[in-house]
Design brief:
By secondary structure, the chain is an alpha+beta fold. About 30% of the residues lie in helices and about 25% in strands. The chain is built from 10 helices and 13 strands.
Length: about 325
């Protein structure tokens, strides 16, 4: 058989079928049901990694010398580019009035809180949101950040450090039913910035677990709904949400948040786990503003990577 005949023959039908399935999952992931094992949310948590599936299928199609499979691969390649390609475009030039923020789950097992605080301050953000603040590390963060961030508010295990004055601080009730122990992982405050007042919400949603039965996320999902209610009731026009949300922006469980707030337009910024980042579960979202550039910072003593973002006000 000639090379041309090999390329244009009927081989590669299985690869072509896999390409079509991948394209369907990318384009219609919302149709995958969540009732059994949270399969929909599980898929959406790792949706960008379907690009790796496309790459593997491409290599196999070349090895098989199947033009049929290569043509079919145009479908998932186009779907992935449409969905995620914009994240890789150049970020807009920094503006003088952008709000620069850092979001970091510092880990309650962090053995170097002072070093972590210094690393975050070196990025020179305007706001620093931290989760998993526990004593005595909480006091170390306060002391280390005090010089550059004289204003702070801490509620439970979440906190915000600011270059600008804060007021109207209060806890956010995002505790799911069924958690009986003391649990305070949300706060709301107002930062008085040079461009005007900004309501800042800091949250740490419950963890999810992946096991043989699928994704266990009921507490996370309930807490996201409560946080969505708090955002809907927020009277300030400008809002920034910073937090470890234990979910990606593609995960339908975060719809109560992503339907109200803008998410990052640039930067993939996979943040967890720090040693081999697979997903961005540390989020920056905004109302009346664009999250124009988002990136991770170097690893600290945490199992999460810090995330830095610029918020451009409309």
């Amino acid at each position: 058989m000639t090379d041309w005949a090999a390329w244009t023959g009927g081989r590669g039908r299985v690869l072509a079928g896999a390409a079509v399935v991948t394209a369907l999952l990318l384009s219609f992931h919302g149709a995958v049901p969540n009732r059994v094992g949270g399969l929909g949310s599980l898929l959406e948590s790792f949706l960008p990694w379907l690009g790796a599936v496309v790459a593997v299928l491409f290599v196999l199609a070349v090895v098989r010398r199947s033009a049929f499979a290569l043509v079919a691969l145009l479908l998932p390649a186009a779907a992935w580019t449409y969905h995620f390609g914009g994240l890789f475009l150049p970020a807009p030039d920094p503006g003088a009035h952008d709000l620069v923020v850092v979001q970091h789950n510092v880990s309650d097992e962090n053995t170097d809180p002072a070093g972590t605080a210094r690393a975050l301050a070196r990025a020179e953000p305007d706001l620093v949101a931290l989760e998993e603040l526990v004593p005595p590390a909480r006091e170390v963060y306060a002391e280390t950040l005090a010089a550059d961030y004289p204003y702070r508010v801490v509620r439970g295990t979440v906190g915000l450090w600011s270059k600008y004055p804060l007021s109207g601080s209060r806890p956010l009730d995002i505790k799911p039913r069924g958690i009986e122990e003391e649990w305070q992982r949300g706060l709301r405050t107002v930062a008085h910035t040079p461009r005007g007042d900004v309501a800042v919400h800091v949250a740490h949603l419950p963890s999810v677990r992946v096991g043989a039965s699928g994704l266990a996320s009921s507490w996370r999902d309930e807490s996201a709904g409560l946080l969505g209610d708090a955002l809907a009731a927020e009277e300030q026009g400008r809002v920034v949400l910073l937090g470890d949300l234990n979910g990606t922006v593609d995960d339908r469980a975060l719809d109560p948040l992503t339907t109200q707030l803008n998410v990052a337009e640039r930067g993939l910024a996979l943040s967890f786990p720090a040693g081999l980042p697979l997903a961005r579960i540390d989020q920056v979202m905004a109302r009346a503003g664009t999250v124009g550039a988002l990136r991770t910072l170097p690893a600290t003593g945490s199992d999460h990577l810090p995330v830095l973002a610029r918020v451009i006000w409309h």
